[in-house]
Amino acid sequence: MIGKRSRAWNGGCENGVAGGWEVGRVRGLEPRGGPSARSRAVAFGPPRSGLVLYDEGLLWLLNEMRQDGHLDNTIRFKLSAHCGHGNPASLRLLQQIGADSINPVRDLDLPMIAALRAAVDVPLDIHTDTPVASGGFIRFYEAPEIVRIAAPVYLKVGNSVLEQHGQLPTPQDMHMMLNNVCIVLELIARFCPEYKQS
Fold first, then answer.
1. Rounded to whole angstroms, how far apart are CA atoms 73 and 67?
2. In angstroms, rounded to a whole number, what is the distance separating the alpha carbons of residues 138 and 120?
3. What is the pLDDT of residues 55-91, one digit of tens each?
4. b/e for 107-138, b at 16 or more Cβ within 10 A?
5. Which end of the chain is more exposed for a tag (fewer CB within 10 A), N or C?
């Protein structure tokens, strides 16, 4: 994960009700969440699943480095839902600047998700539920239809167990999350057995 770092100086926007969404963005050329964080991540060897990014500018930069051979070409870049993208034009742009997988905003309805799929080829990450602090919705019964309209898609399941995003789950939370995964898998198997999990 690259981004979401605290800063030595805080001008106040990050703490405000309306400005809190800015916290994941890379600001200036500071090392905490930008290219030097990428260097530390890559120093551990090629990541198996890639890097989660919170900033489109950083996505563009890292993709340029990947194309120029400065990064291993097997590294994959996933753009976080915290970036706030939820329309086809935005996702098309993200794909063009290097996103290999995109997490759109969490509360899109089915026609909106279908429109995103029509705009891009990269996998989408779609939430079937969210923590209470992020709306607390549960849409397990829509999972088969989400797979039908959005494949290739990764379903993000189990977050409704938590109070807020980023909260460490307890063993009991993890058991409940696993139960939610089983429910979603059962629904997909029941209503669309032809779909294959990769």
1. 7
2. 26
3. 999 999 999 999 998 888 889 999 999 889 999 999 9
4. ebeeeebbebbebbebbbbbbbbbbeebeeeb
5. C
